[in-house]
Every structure is written in structure tokens, then in C-alpha cells.
Write a structure and sequence with these properties.
Elements (H helix, E strand, L loop, with lengths): L1 H30 L10 H55 L6 H21 L3 E2 L2 E2 L8 E5 L2 E5 L25 H21 L9 E3 L2 E3 L3 H39 L3 H35 L2
Antiparallel strand pairs: 1-2, 3-4, 5-6
């Protein structure tokens, strides 16, 4: 009787072993992973889990880079509008310095300059996701990436910072006379130097000489435009680096954890065949045992 029990246990044990292997193979096929659980390979599973975590962080770094890039592009558009406005003011100041203008001509020029300055000031308050970008309220835009943090300058192009108005918003540019127009050039020249110290980046000259005075009003805005352009280029490089990092991580993860589906299917079929043989063996064993028992008195 002990031999009979031992024989049954042998068949059952063999069947359970094959069935367990079949379940693991089925799990690999369904998940597409060579190590779907830690029990399938503890060290390999841990490595794959870390890679998955890093891939997620790298993907988020790419998205962060894209959002910061969008914010800088919005800033760039506002700065381009400011540069255009300053160019127009430059033309009007040169015009106002001409003695051929009558009082009503200067009044019309002054009115247009005031409107342009108002628009320039509005440009400083452009927003991205509720965050004002160019009004001086932001020390910078922080990019969080898997490899650390990087700060991108936001800048300050308010009319007061550019020297076009005082702190109360009163326009400092006066074209009522030729002399006041010339003095306005000097005021703007001095203020632009201060603004240039605030704004970083490559300094691009936009000089225009009138009566011996250097007209540099446009410099700070060009300064900021150059800064934004350089920062966008940095972001493009950073995004490309993150994309390469993600691709390499995905490749490593694939090498470690991707299951060979065709091979797993073949293994599953073999295991299913072995299961059938094991069941058949158990059935035959039981039949033989019943036959022997029927012969006993």
C-alpha cells in the first residue's frame, strides 16, 4: 500500500511541477516580460524595476523640458513685440528731434509713443499657466530633470525697468520740443545701461547716434531676446539628451526583461503536452491499481 501511495504522489508531484511551469510561462506571455514577478528572478526583477522607475523620471524630464520651452517661447514672442515697439519709438524720437514738426505734430507723436509704451509694459505681464514671465516677479524658471535642476532666466522688460516710465507709470519720454526729445534720448540711454545690467545674455548693439548721443533703448530687449533664444537652444539640447537617455534605458530594459514570445509559446505547448502525459499516467496508474485490486480475493 505504501508503494501505491508513493506512486500516486510521484505522479501528482510531477503534474504540479509541470502545471506551475505552465502558469509561469503563461504569465510571461500575457505580460511580455521575462521576469513578471520577483519569484521569476529576484535580481533581474529588481534591475528591471529600477530601469522602469528611471524611464518614468526621464519621460517626465522630457515633458518638463517641453513645458519650460513653451514658457520661453511665449516670452520670446512678447520680447519680439517689445523690440518692434522700441524700434517704432526710436523712429518717432528721431522724427520729433526734427525742427520741421509743429506742435500738433509733436502731440500726435507723443500720443503714439505713449500707446506703444503702454503696450510694451503689457508685454511684460504675459503668462504661462498663471505665472507671469517678464515682470520681474520670477527670479527664473526652474527645470527639474532626472539629472538635477537648471534655472532659466525669466527677465524683466517692464516699461519702468526699461526706463520708459517712472515707478508710478508716468511716461518719461517727452517730444513736445526738439530739446525735450533730445533729452529723452539721454534719459533712455542712461536707463538702458541700468536695464542691461539686469538682463543677462549676449549683448547685441542696436545703436543709433543722434546729436552725439548713443541711442541704446533697444539693447535690453535685444539682450533678453538673445537670452531667450540661447535658453531655447539649451532646452532643445537638453530634450535631445533626455530622449537619448530614455531610448537607452528602454533598450536596456528590453534586453533584461522582454520575453521571447515565440519561445515562450513553444515552451507552453511542450508543458501542456507534458501535463497531458502526466494526467494520462495518473489515469493509467489508477486503472492498473483497480485491476489488481479486482483480482485480489
Amino acid at each position: 500500500m505504501a508503494m501505491t501511495v508513493g506512486g500516486v504522489n510521484s505522479y501528482v508531484s510531477n503534474y504540479n511541477r509541470i502545471n506551475s511551469a505552465t502558469q509561469k510561462t503563461t504569465q510571461r506571455i500575457s505580460t511580455g516580460q521575462k521576469f513578471p514577478t520577483a519569484s521569476a528572478g529576484a535580481s533581474e526583477y529588481a534591475i528591471a524595476a529600477r530601469l522602469v522607475s528611471n524611464i518614468g523620471a526621464t519621460s517626465q524630464s522630457i515633458r518638463n523640458t517641453q513645458t519650460i520651452g513653451s514658457a520661453i517661447k511665449i516670452s520670446e514672442g512678447a520680447i519680439n513685440n517689445t523690440i518692434h515697439g522700441l524700434t517704432t519709438i526710436k523712429e518717432h524720437l528721431v522724427n520729433a528731434a526734427n525742427d520741421a514738426n509743429e506742435t500738433y505734430d509733436r502731440q500726435a507723436i507723443q500720443k503714439e509713443i505713449n500707446q506703444i509704451i503702454s503696450q510694451i509694459n503689457s508685454n511684460a505681464y504675459v503668462e504661462y499657466n498663471g505665472k507671469k514671465l517678464l515682470d520681474g516677479s520670477q527670479s527664473g524658471l526652474m527645470l527639474a530633470g532626472i539629472d538635477g535642476y537648471e534655472n532659466f532666466q525669466a527677465g524683466d522688460i517692464r516699461a519702468a525697468t526699461l526706463g520708459l516710465t517712472d515707478d508710478q507709470g508716468n511716461v518719461k519720454i517727452d517730444v513736445s520740443t526738439r530739446e525735450s526729445a533730445t533729452n529723452s534720448l539721454k534719459i533712455v540711454d542712461r536707463a538702458a545701461t541700468v536695464a542691461g545690467d539686469i538682463l543677462d545674455g549676449m549683448h547685441v548693439l542696436g545703436d543709433y547716434v543722434v546729436d552725439g548721443f548713443t541711442f541704446e533703448t533697444i539693447d535690453p530687449a535685444l539682450d533678453e531676446a538673445t537670452t531667450q533664444g540661447a535658453q531655447l537652444q539649451r532646452l532643445e539640447f537638453q530634450e535631445a539628451n533626455y530622449a537619448t537617455m530614455e531610448e537607452n534605458q528602454l533598450g536596456a530594459l528590453s534586453t533584461i526583461s522582454d520575453a521571447d514570445i515565440a519561445r515562450q509559446v513553444v515552451e507552453m505547448r511542450n508543458q501542456q503536452t507534458l501535463e497531458q502525459f502526466a494526467l494520462f499516467g495518473m489515469k493509467m496508474f489508477n486503472q492498473n491499481r483497480a485491476s489488481i485490486q479486482s483480482l485480489l480475493p
